[in-house]
Design goal:
Layout: H1 6-20, H2 28-31, E1 35-45, E2 62-66, H3 81-84, E3 98-102, E4 104-107, E5 113-115, E6 129-135, E7 152-155, E8 170-175, E9 204-210, E10 214-215, E11 229-230, E12 249-250, E13 253-260, E14 277-279, E15 291-294, H4 301-307, H5 324-328, E16 343-344
């Protein structure tokens, strides 16, 4: 079953997710809401204004999507992406936020590397990049507070190489065929793994990165880019489980999906007992995958979307959209010129591979 209708996809996805979470699905699809839209590739390069502000040539590269004001510094005291950007690679033309993750590479038996491209997700159009979700609580009643100008956060740890210490809701799904059936369970359930799949995934690999939904209400950032936010004390990420007293403000659920198109590499010879994929920071385990976020929606657009329970990649009379071609045409040249296509002898930045 291959869906092209976004509304049908979201209704079925919400029903299945609620069932997986143990929440009665009765009437769910009338109230379940989630923004789900594509952001095409803006640039791939070694910049990270959160972890390495001001540095051109960070230890590993990222794939970045969103507003074209992305740069090495992005000081929140003087810069608002919504004002500085002239275009965005995302479907919603009022979203100049930046979203970025590590890249995935295939390592051949001769030691050379090739970047793994991404597929456009089910029901969406555009170029390779990231699928972004903003999800309010499924009860249809709990109000969320949209992120504020200057807000930023990080999920994951690029240096992690073991399960211990990994944040919640960061996982991989191995697709057995190109149909990418999305109804096998909510993200990070069932056969999903926090490590990179060890078997050949004929339909590709999905990475899901899910951000905390509780905010301290004071700090737009923190030294580790994590402490100002928290996950609910109980329940799963989209539910109305209580926020900790230290972080009482409910935020929208931000989630990334990256659909890695590993199909061309299934023809390569794999070494027995060892999967050949590695993240750009030299991580062959998968535990080090991470996601960064800098908020950049224009004015109160995101708050209006949450208040109106916008769903999918269109919300008439509430949010402005642009064509997939317009989104894909918003790109940036690399600040640090490096080869990102074809076979390369080492990972960009020279990170050694850790298994």
């Amino acid at each position: 079953m291959k869906l092209t209708d976004t509304t049908l996809f979201l209704g079925l996805f919400a029903t299945n997710t609620l069932a997986q979470l143990g929440t009665p699905p009765s009437g769910c699809c009338a109230t379940a809401a989630m923004l789900r839209f594509g952001c095409s590739k803006l640039v791939i390069e070694r910049l990270d204004p959160l972890v390495n502000p001001g540095v051109v040539g960070t230890p590993h590269n990222h794939q970045i999507v969103g507003g074209n004001s992305f740069n090495a510094s992005m000081d929140p005291a003087v810069m608002d992406p919504a004002n500085e950007s002239t275009c965005t690679s995302c479907t919603f033309s009022e979203d100049f936020s930046n979203y970025w993750t590590a890249n995935l590479y295939f390592q051949a038996r001769n030691g050379s590397f090739k970047r793994v491209p991404q597929m456009v997700n089910l029901g969406l159009k555009g170029n390779e990049g990231i699928t972004v979700y903003y999800i309010p609580p499924y009860d249809g009643k709990t109000k969320v507070t949209a992120f504020k100008q200057g807000f930023r956060m990080l999920v994951g740890d690029a240096m992690l190489r073991q399960a211990e210490g990994q944040q919640k809701q960061l996982c991989h799904r191995c697709y057995s065929n190109i149909e990418q059936d999305p109804f096998g369970g909510a993200p990070c359930t069932g056969n999903d793994t926090s490590y990179l799949p060890l078997e050949k995934c004929e339909g590709g690999i999905r990475t899901t990165i899910t951000f905390p939904t509780c905010w301290d209400g004071k700090n737009l950032d923190s030294p580790d880019h994590k402490s100002h936010v928290a996950y609910p004390t109980t329940g799963s990420f989209e539910t109305t489980g209580p926020c900790p007293a230290s972080h009482p403000i409910r935020l929208p659920q931000l989630m990334y999906e990256i659909m890695w198109d590993t199909r061309e590499f299934n023809r390569e010879e794999w070494e027995v007992g060892k999967q050949p994929f590695v993240y750009s920071m030299g991580d062959a385990t998968g535990f080090g995958q991470h996601g960064d976020y800098i908020f950049g929606w224009k004015d109160d657009a995101l708050q209006r979307a949450m208040d109106n329970r916008c769903t999918g990649d269109s919300c008439p009379n509430v949010l402005k959209t642009q064509s997939s071609d317009a989104a894909a045409s918003c790109t940036l040249p690399q600040t640090l010129k490096e080869d990102i296509e074809g076979w390369i002898p080492t990972l960009p930045g020279g990170a050694p591979v850790v298994y």
